[in-house]
Amino acid sequence: MNGELTCRTDMYHGLPGIRYCTYINPKTHFSATVTANGGRIMSLCRGSFDAIDSNPEVIAALPGLLKMERSQVKWEQVNLGGGRCWPAPQNLFGKDGKGEGMVPFLDLDLGEYSLEEADRNTVVLCSPVDRETLLRVARLIRFDPAGTEGTSITDRIANHSRERKLVAPWDLLQVKRPVSITVGPLRERPTVFREFGDPYRVPGLVTEEDKGIWTLALGSGLDIPMFKLGLSFDPAAVNGKIRSLYQNGMLLQHSFPVTEGPYPHKGAAEIFFNSFHQYVELEVLGREQWLAPEEFSQGLSLKVELKQ
What we know:
The protein folds into two domains: 4-169 and 295-303, no CATH class; 176-285, no CATH class. 4% of the residues lie in helices and 47% in strands.
C-alpha cells in the first residue's frame, strides 16, 4: 500500500482553521505534516519517533506577530521550528539589536503560504511577497510513494522588486538532539563562524573519521553555548551528505548535489547549535545569483530520508 496525502483546513494542535497536509505511508510507518503557516515541514516520523523539533503553539500568536515589525519581536516568539526556506545571505536580515540576523523576515518565515496538493504525493507552497524585501519563497515537497527514497524538496526564491537582488535559497531543518552528525565528503575541515560563540573551543568537537568525512557528537551535556559550522563539500563528489544518527538507531540523511558555488556563506551547508535549545539546525544553501525583477532563482534540490 502506497502513501496517502491529505490536505485540509481544520483543527491543528487545538487551533481552528489551520491549513495543513498530512502524509501517511502505513507500509513503511512513515508520516509527515506540512503547514501553510511558514510553509513548514512540521514533522517527519517513523512510527512514534519524530526527528523534527517544532513549536506548533507559536501558530496561535501569528496574527498578532505578523502585524508587528521585526524590531519589535524576539526569536523565542517566532521560532516555529521545523523545516523552512529563507533567502540568503543572512546579512540581508540586518541587525535586530540582539545580533546579526537573529529574527528572519516575518512574512517569509511565518506568513500563510498557499498550500496545494499537486498530486497524491506532492505539496506546492508559495509565500506572500515579503513586505521588506519584496521576495517570495516557493517550495515543492514530494513524498516517495514507495517509501524507500525519502522526501524530495525544491526551494526557489522570486524577486518581485524593481531592482536586481543577489540571493540564494537557504533550506533549514530544525532537528532534535542528542544526535551524532556525520558530514562529507568535505574538501577542508569545517569552518567556524566567529560571530557565533567561541571559535577556539569548537574545533575539538569535530573529528575526521575518514578522508573528508567528519563527525560531530552533539549530546545533552555540551557546555559550549552556541556555535555554527560552515561545510565546504568536495566538488568532485556527486552528492554531499549530512547524516544524523539518533540513540534509538534512527538515521536522518540529507543528500544534495554539490557544485563550485558561489555560495552566500561559507559553503554548501551549515550546522547551527545552541545549548539553550534542544535542537540542531541543519542548513543547505543554493548557489548565489543575481535575480532580475520578476525572476526566480535556480532551484535548491535536496532529499531528506528518515530510516531505521
